[in-house]
């Protein structure tokens, strides 16, 4: 079972993410945060530590004019929280894959959160 405290930390992180509030996101992270992004089963991004995470967050925030993660469900997996997510975003720039500024992206996926010392120490996004 996921504690209410852990849920609150995760919800605060998602709220900061949706608001492009990188400083508030970073305040919730453990100094040794590990972030990984998986698309179609392949890992395409990995950061280690707050500085690398912050640089990625700042870079990716410029790609979207709007973004929203919505939590659908929580599951406890060992000592981690698995969060089912619906994601919607509007692009602010043209991407090399053919998507253009103003295009809407909608995805369903999950995020795995690990917490250590009351901070988020692991985020793995799967879509």
From TrEMBL:
Residue ranges annotated for the SnoaL-like domain, each copy included: 10-121
Signal peptide bounds: none
Stretches of the chain forming a coiled coil according to its record: none
InterPro entries: NTF2-like_dom_sf, SnoaL-like
Pfam families: SnoaL_2 (PF12680)
Identification of the protein by name: SnoaL-like domain-containing protein
Source species of the chain: Peribacillus simplex
